[in-house]
Write a structure and sequence with these properties.
Arc Repressor Mutant, subunit A; mainly alpha; 71% helix; DNA-binding; homodimer; elongated
DNA sequence: GTCTATATTTGGATAGAC
DNA sequence: GTCTATCCAAATATAGAC
């Protein structure tokens, strides 16, 4: 389909423009000029600017889900659940830090007026459901385990993007943070 | 001074507008109408829209610094450094979560084209310098200690704001996260 | 599907009278 | 300091010819 190809081309150009101008500064005019059309012609592919944001959101969520699942499947699969927790954390942190604009679109609600559609958001929820199952296999099956796990990862990511974008100042501590988290939860268990 | 009063009134209205419309949607027109002026008259108080953002940034940074210092001074002061670390963490997390818009302006770089001035940013750097000194008094004086401390706090804040704004789902684990952090660092020290 | 033409709104900013 | 008048650029979106 020619239509689908052009659609993909528009989305690629949209990512590019957001990386240069900022997520909130996506402009249909500039976007159209980049792909060689008049701005009005974009409406043959997307019914509004927010439909473009939504398509980008869905695309990014899908890639996140796939990369996490690929990480879980690689190696011995379910052999060592703790190793799965660690491997997944690395993929998570890498995905979030390698593209700040994608992170902002997916995880921060900073675009005025944009909310992902139910269909797009459902994809994002799946990644969290996966994480919950994976932690449960490692004996960390409560909300508390999940929330603290995502919080320590989110913290490294947030600080890395805010204070040292493109660097390693915070994420280099990921393995130590995982040790800290796992030791703590392990000790809690023994304490009972 | 009448001038200063009006200036403050404009800044108050700007916070209000950002809370309703989003940080990036601050509009000089709407702002002027709110305070009962023509949009052009704002230029008697601020030389540009970014000058308004910068004044807001400086105001918020100053309040953050003052609240952290007040927390450090209260109680016995330097009696128990670890207690200071904890108390400061609570103030930090509360400040960040009680006003998402202020958090976005201060800690996320999401407004296209806006960078705080050197003078405003210097205030923000002071808070970090304070944190470093406070950790050092508690025997946690390295960059690694500081970065992991700010990361775990930032993680709770980021998740709280993104997934449960106005709630307590993540921040309720603050004391446990602090236990986890302090235990881990303590154990590291003994290990040597 | 793509264009021209156009509508409509909004944005930030300046000049100059008072 | 505040206003009127104005500029200029940009935004999203629609109508209709081809």
């Amino acid at each position: 389909m020619r239509h689908e190809e052009t659609r993909q081309q528009i989305l690629r150009a949209a990512w590019e423009q957001m990386r240069v101008e900022g997520v909130a500064s996506l402009s249909l005019r500039a976007l159209a000029r980049t792909v060689g059309m008049e701005p009005q012609s974009l409406y043959s592919y997307f019914e509004s600017k927010y439909a473009i944001y939504d398509a980008l959101f869905a695309e990014a969520s899908t890639e996140f889900l796939e990369r996490l699942r690929a990480a879980a499947a690689e190696g011995d699969g379910n052999a060592d659940p703790i190793e799965g927790v660690r491997r997944r954390a690395h993929v998570w942190v890498r995905f979030c830090t390698e593209d700040p604009v994608r992170y902002q679109l997916l995880f921060q609600r900073t675009i005025p007026g944009f909310e992902p559609s139910e269909a797009s958001y459902a994809i994002a929820r799946e990644t969290l459901a996966d994480a919950r199952r994976m932690l449960a296999r490692a004996g960390l099956g409560t909300d508390r385990h999940l929330d603290m796990y995502t919080a320590v990862l989110a913290g490294l990511v947030a600080q890395q993007l805010a204070n040292d974008p493109g660097g390693r100042r915070y994420v280099r501590h990921l393995d130590e943070v995982l040790d800290m988290y796992l030791d703590h939860m392990n000790k809690q268990r023994k304490g009972r």
